[in-house]
Amino acid sequence: MNLNRRKFLLKSTVGVAALSSIPGIVSASISSSETRNKLVFNSEDIILFQGDSITDAGRDRENESPNRGGSFGGGYAFLAAANLLNAMPEKNIKIYNRGISGNKVFQLDERWEKDCLDLNPEVLSILIGVNDYWHKRNGKYDGTVEIYENDYRALLKRTLKSLPNIKLVLCEPFYVLETKAVDETWVEPMKKYQAAAKRISDEFNTIWVPYQKVFDEAIKHAPGTYWTGDGVHPSMAGAQLMAEAWLKAVGA
Known about the structure:
Elements: H1 3-20, H2 22-29, E1 46-51, H3 53-56, H4 76-87, E2 94-97, H5 105-110, H6 112-115, E3 123-127, H7 130-137, H8 145-162, E4 167-171, H9 187-203, E5 207-209, H10 211-218, H11 224-227, H12 236-250
Parallel strand pairs: 1-2, 1-3, 3-4, 4-5
Helix pairs in contact: 2-10, 2-12, 4-12, 8-9
């Protein structure tokens, strides 16, 4: 093999590896034009992650202190928060995780005073919606996509009424096919919930984290079960993928 051929193969291999890595997957999914509305983090900012079990990730709910590993569990919120704290030690930001497993939008609303408004955050990130569909699917809930959208809109209006200067990050509810719990019958119903979440994001001019696009790209590089066992709750790799997508979307 001549030297030029060897160099070509080396460059090709490196290029494929870079694309297959998590940063490469995120870059292929979230364009620069989608991150123009970057968050500006100021000194003493309070950042709050909210949602269901994907955000909860097994956190310690007995000690919900900010910037504490046990208070975050082992998911994307922990990884994203750790990155922010590492990148901005001089700003003394405080980051909370108040996701609770099993929550739907109306359950966020029921605890919103304590778990959001009383914390007075400058930045609020919400990932909610999979249970609004999944619990309906398994007979544990009789909600509809219209209820989801109306409740979500009302929750954000309530938030902005109390915290008019808050910066909002809405994360797309997602699913991954060919996994333990998710099959093709999820696709069309979940698209409706995703569309509702995107409408609300556009209406309130929030930062949008397109998780479905990210996972759709990810499964081109590794099977769905590599990223999430059941199609909803991320693996270690899936949590890192989510954290990097969140950071890219907010411009951190």
